[in-house]
Every structure is written in C-alpha cells, then in structure tokens.
What does this fold into?
Amino acid sequence: MYSNLIHNFTIALSIVLLASCDKKEEQKTAAQQAPPAVAVTLEEVTTTDAVYYDEYPASVIPLNQVELRPQVTGFITGVHFQDGARVRKGQLLYSIDAQLYSANYEQAVANLKVQEANVNKAQKDADRYHELDKNDAVAKQLVDNADAALEVAKKQAEAAKANISAVSTSVRYTKVMAPFDGVIGISLVKPGAAVSAGQTILNTVSTDGQLAVDFGVDQKEIYRFTTLLKNKASGDSTFTLAFGKDIYPYPGKIQLIDRAVDPQTGTIKTRLIFPNHDNLLRAGMTGTVRVLNRASTKSVVIPYKAVTEQLGEFFVYVARDSSKVSQRRIVPGQPLGTKIIVKEGLKEGEKIAVEGVQNLREGSVIKTDK
It folds into this structure.
C-alpha cells in the first residue's frame, strides 16, 4: 500500500512539472510571436496664427454672351467681320439674301396705295349719298351701305399699313447686327450657306472688358461670404485667381451670392468680377479662386508627413499613455509648405507620430527615438 502511495505521488508530481513546462513554453512562444515595438518620432501638436488662402475650383464666364441666330430664313450673302475681332454695338455682321423680302415689301407698299384709293372712292360715294339723303332722293339703305363700305375700306388700309410694318421688319432682319460691344468668335457659317429663322447658330458675341468667375461655396461658409459681400472694397487682395502655379496679377471683387443652395451638392454659387487687362482672361477658362483667410482663431498645424490617406479619408497616429498609438481621422485644411492646417480631429498638446508612420497600425506598440 505504501508503495502505491509513492507511485501515485510520483505520477502527480510529473503531471505538475509537465504542465509548468508547457506554460513556460507557451509564454516564451507568445513573446517570440508578439510584434516588436515600432520606432517612431513623436511631435507635439501646436497652434499658430496662420495666414493662408482657401482655394475653390472656378470657371471664367463672360458677363454678357449672346448666340447670334437669324430671324429670317435665307442664304448668307455676306460676312462683314474678321473671326475673333472686336465689334461695336450696331455693327453689321451678316447679310442674308433680301430679294424675296424686298419684293414682299414693294408688294405691300403697292397694296397700301390700292387700299388708300379704295378709301378715297368710298369716301366720295358716302359723301354723295349723304347729299342725296338730305333731299330724300335716295333710299336710306343705300346711305348705310355707303357708310359701311367706307369703314371696310379704312380697315383694309390699316391692315395694309400693318403688313408693310411686318415685311419691312423682315427686310431689316436680313442684316444681323452686333447686340453690344464685345468680341465675336469664329463664324459657323460661310457665304452661300442656308440658314433657318431662329434655328441656325451663326456665331457668339461676348463681353471681355470684365469677366465673371463662378465657384461653389459650402453652405457652412455662407455667413463668411455674405460678410465679405457687405464689406467689399475695390482693389482688395482678398480674392485672387490662380492657373496652376501662375497667379493672375489683378485682384477681383465679390459681386453676388446666388439666391439658393443647390440641394444636390450642398453648395451655393458665388460670383467674382475680375478686370481683364491685357486680355489675359478668356471665357471658358478654369482655374482656382484663392480667398484670403483672416480668421482670428489660432490654427492647428502639423507636419504634412504625419498624415496618411485611406479611401479618401485622412488619418494621423496619436500616442497614448500606454506606449501605444491609436489612429484618428482628421479634416485637413490648407497646406503651408511642409506643414498642413488641421480643421478638425486634433488638439494642441497632443503628440502624434511623424516618423515611422508607414509601419504603424491601430494599437501598435511604439518606442520613441531619442
């Protein structure tokens, strides 16, 4: 029996020793499998009184632009300008074959003369019958018929005059004039081309002394731009225009804010006016409106290299007290050289990783470079 006790105790001790060895082996394996700490450089988030420009994609449009269309049908007989030339209001641009319309006018004039002759005849007949009526020498019905014939003749003469006005308008419309001072484009028709009234586009004329620049503003910024509209001043450098790296040398001024927000985009159209000195601007150009930001509050600024992008969203890694980092989404603002403004997501005094960022993940253990 004593030997059995010794045997059972030996078995139990062996099991305990084996379990202890297995546990140590698991702890050693887990330690070997844990990812090593990532070496990073941390930097404290700071704020500054940053002066910068907010940028908005924009398009250049003319203040006044008209498509020239004929108001009569016919064939082009003359083009009286050079493509791309500057034109004056009332200047002759196109001639349309006027033979048919001139003939109609002459016919209308002749018809008016006939109607006027009929009026004279009817007037004389009416006068004659009225003289006879005084002596009871004619039936009353004949007098009434003469008066009615006179009224008909007068109305026909008025209709003939109206017809002259209509056909003379058609004759006038065979000359296409410039509606205002501006620049005309490349002609879309040549002499001999057939054109239809109200259908065929002959050309386009637009103003170019000043040009408008339209851009969309987020509805959150309506108050800011409304204030700028109320306080607008000539020559102010708040609004400038950029094309790539080139800055248009003349500042613009805000003219208007559209009446309503676009429900599709949540933006509202805003219009600036820029002088077009040296004809540097052309309608249809696209560029970037730069609006000087004079915000009185301090801006959070971090190194641009600390920011990572994932599926269109921007993140930084913020150090926690437990030597780990957490990924945090931010709303970036305007770049300032090697730094960038952060609109939302960070506070002054927090520490973020600026080196070794590419090796970090959510919850990564870090060690800082000394």
